[in-house]
Amino acid sequence: MPRVIVDVMPKPEILDPQGKAVTGALQRLGFSGLAVRQGKRFEVEVDGDLSEEVLEQIRHAAETLLANTVIETFDVRVAP
Amino acid sequence: MTARIGVVTFPGSLDDADALRAVKLSGAEPVPLWHASDDLAGVDAVVLPGGFSYGDYLRCGAIARFSPVMDEVIRRAGQGLPVLGICNGFQVLCEAHLLPGALIRNDRRTFVCRDQLLRVETRDTVWTCDFEDGQEIVIALKNGEGNYQADAETVARLEGENRVVFRYLDVNPNGSLHDIAGITNERGNVVGLMPHPEHNVELLTGASIDGLGFFSSVQRFLAALV
Q1: Are the CB atoms for B152 and B69 separated by under 8 Å?
Q2: Mean predicted confidence (pLDDT) in A24-29
C-alpha cells in the first residue's frame, strides 16, 4: 500500500516552546550546539495507486486539517 | 423578551455547564447545544466554551472546527449572530477562520491559572457594549496554549481597526503578541478571548463578577435590535 509522508513544522518566525524545551534538555545532557525545532509527521496510507490526483488531494487535506498555515508549513512527499 | 443563549458542548468541553449557569445568572435563557447537531435551536447568540475539545488532538480546536454544529455557527456568524469563544472556544474560532491568527503553547511552557487583570480596549462589540472603553476587569485565566500569534500585517490591522478587545495588564501570562487577550471580527459580533468570564459571575467562586458584563452586553445588544 503506497504511503505518503506529510511533515508539518512551526514557521521559522513562530516561537516553538516544545523545541526550546527539547533544546534545553539536550544541553543539560551534554549535547552541545544542537538547536531543535519540533514538528509533526503524518503517514498517510493510500488505497490503490498513487496518482498525481491523489497527491493533490493529500496536499489539500494537509492545508485544510493537518497543518494550520497561519503558524505552520507542510511538506508532502511519497515514502520510498 | 428573554434572550436565548446557546452553549455548545463538544466531546471534551469542560466549562459548558459553567457557561450555561453564567447565562442563567445573567438573566438570559441558557440553551444547551450539541456538537454533532447542525441545529442551533433558534438561539439569539452562541458561546463556544472552554475545555479540551476532541482531546486537543492535532491542534487545539482543529477537529472541533469541523464538527457539524460549526458549519451552522460559521454560516450564522457571517449573518451577524453574536458568537463568543472562551479559551478553547477562542481556539476553535481561530481554526475556523472566524477570527485571524492562532493560539500556540505558552512561552513559559507551563499551564497558567490566575485571576488576570484585563483592560477592555473597545466597547464596540456585541459582547462588550455594556463595559466602558478602558475599563479594567479581573477574569479567571487558565490555559496551556493561550499565546496569541499572527503575522505582523494581521496584528497591525487588528490594532488599526480597534479589534483588540482585551489586553493583559500587569503581566503577559503566555507570550501573546501585543499582550492580546481577546479580539473581534470586523463586524464586532464574533469575539474570542482566553480568559473565562463564565467563572466570574458570583463572588462565592470568583475574584470578581466582571464576567457578567459579557452576558449583559449581548443582551443589551439583542434588546436594541428588537
Answers
A1: no
A2: 96
Q: Is residue B66 part of a domain?
A: yes
Q: Is the dihedral of CA A20, A21, A22, A23 positive or negative?
A: positive
CATH number at residue B37: 3.40.50.880
Interface of B with A (CB under 8 A): 58-59, 62, 66, 94-95, 100-102, 104-107, 109, 147, 149-151, 175
Contact A17 B150 (CB under 8 A): no
In chain B, the number of structural domains is: 1
pLDDT band of residue B226 (cuts 50, 70, 90) is confident
Residue A55, SS3? helix
The whole-angstrom distance between B47's CA and the closest CA on chain A is 23
Across-strand partners of B143? B112
**Which H or E run includes A22?**
helix A17-28
Of A15, A65, A71, nearest to B175 by CB-CB distance is: A15
Residue ranges making up the domain that contains B151: 4-217
Whether A66 contacts A6, CB under 8 Å:
yes
Q: What pLDDT, on the 0 to 100 scale, is given for residue A1?
A: 87
B224 within domain boundaries:
no
What does the alpha-carbon distance between residue B45 and residue B184 come to, in Å, rounded to a whole number? Answer: 15
Helices B16-25, B212-225: inter-axial angle, 10-degree rounding: 60
**CATH number for the domain whose boundaries are A3-78:** 3.30.1280.10
- Catalytic positions of B, written as ranges: 87, 196, 198
| Domain-located, residue B223 | no
In chain A, where are the structural domains located?
3-78
Q: Is residue B226 domain-resident?
A: no
pLDDT tens profile B24-80: 999 999 999 999 999 999 999 999 999 999 999 999 999 999 999 999 999 999 999
